[in-house]
Amino acid sequence: MPPRLRLQTRNLRICIQQRQLPIQQCFYASLATAIRPTPPIDQTIYSMPPTARFPHKQPPSHKPPEIRKSQLHRQYQSVLKSSPLILLFQHNNLRAVEWMAIRRELASALRKVDADRAAAGHTEMYADAIKIQIIQTGIFASALRVVEFYHPEEHPEPPKQHPSDPATVSSALIPNTKPTPDDPRFTHGLSRRAHEATSKKKLVLDPLLCGPLALVTFPAVSPQHLKAVLSILSSSKEFPAPKRKVQPSYHEGPVQAGIQKLMLLGARVDGKVFDQEGIKWVGGITGGIDGLRAQLVALLQGAGAGVTNTLESAGRSLYFTMEGRKSMLEDVQKGENGEKEEKADMAEKRAE
Amino acid sequence: MITRFLTDVRTKFNPFSPRAKTVRKFLALLPPNARASGMKIETQVLPRQSKEPALLEVKFRDGKKLNLDLEKMRITEVMEEVDRHSRILARKDELLGN
């Protein structure tokens, strides 16, 4: 069947505009080499075009990138880097219903905190970002080791030409662009270099990282939100659970059964490891970070006033001394002037 | 691990000491409906600096108390110890025709 739209064969033809080069005829071989030099011997033996054999954003990794382990490793690294406050819980055989109920209670409590903060004029809302998630403990430990001990950006190597960079000239010699994970130029978190640099290191958190673990991740160290989370997940005297009248859903069966099976083990706050007491201390900071700031400002203002008083007092005393001296001199001068005038008057009188 | 015959589990541990792994793994082995079916489970998490040894006390249905020494025992050995008595109880149940 012919196509319904009639295409003219002229349009189908690819237009190739060939520039007519002036024909150069080389009569002498010596002149011919002058025009086009022979390539270096390496180029003729090894063909190494400067093209990357892997996508720019997906450099080869230690483990195959498509497996679940690698993706979890990457995900845990990003979680660790993006959340300064992480709570570690052990979960002992919670059921799906119980998880669901706990997540629901946690979300509602955090939303309440956010509403309070909005009323108080704060703009940072973290309710939707604070999540409880179950982790694969071994992979998490490995990711934590990479995050703690592997910092390639602190020892930067001189910038090299990247094959997929358009600024790289096509004749550039780039050592190895094959997708083998052994290449030491790959410095990302999943690279073999990262694995080899960190796999033997010991973590402070190592004894905690065994058994079934769950994380509560916070996008910022916010004591108010921490307080809400603690009062839901591990209530104590300092962080009492919500009352039955205030939040009846918290006292339902699945929530209570689930919370009994959760154990708070420790926390990681800004790279430091805290135990339960430490977590309570962080959660007990009144007024959150603003409260701390207010305390600091008050402290500094008191100190500042003292400093200014001391600094001013020297200048002030100098000023008073100088003023006193000035007034004294003026008095003396006035007195002298007065005497002179009197003497002049006396002389005039005598002359009369 | 046979947990049918346990009525009481009392634990105390410092999560930052490597010896606490056994206790934590033991707690993870208890079934999801353990508390609902009448088992009493008490856990106390000690602060990080405490040198107190980890404690794991198990009580069976027939009143036998088992205080497990966690300085030496691993989780497999703890499971063996608990199962040994649980099997005796199971055998008695069977002979009684339950």
Automatic annotation (TrEMBL), chain A:
Query: Where is this chain compositionally biased, Polar residues type?
Result: 167-179
Region described as Disordered: spans on this chain: 153-193, 330-352
Which parts of the chain span the membrane according to its record?
none
Question: InterPro entries recorded for this chain?
Answer: Ribosomal_uL10-like_sf, Ribosomal_uL10_bac_type
User: Where do Basic and acidic residues bias regions lie?
Assistant: 153-163
Q: Which domain of life is it from?
A: Eukaryota
The family classification in the record reads:
Belongs to the universal ribosomal protein uL10 family.
Can you name this protein?
A: Ribosomal protein YmL11, mitochondrial
Organism listed in the record: Lepidopterella palustris CBS 459.81
From TrEMBL, chain B:
Name the keywords, alphabetized: Mitochondrion, Ribonucleoprotein, Ribosomal protein
Give the Gene3D superfamilies listed for this entry: Glutaredoxin
Q: Which Pfam families match?
A: MRP_L53
Signal peptide region: none
User: Where, subcellularly, is it found?
Assistant: Mitochondrion
GO cellular-component term (any): mitochondrial large ribosomal subunit
Q: Where on the tree of life does the source sit, at the highest rank?
A: Eukaryota
Q: Does the keyword Mitochondrion apply?
A: yes
Q: Which family does it belong to?
A: Belongs to the mitochondrion-specific ribosomal protein mL53 family.
Q: What is this protein called?
A: Large ribosomal subunit protein mL53
Lineage at the top is: Eukaryota, Fungi, Dikarya, Ascomycota, Pezizomycotina
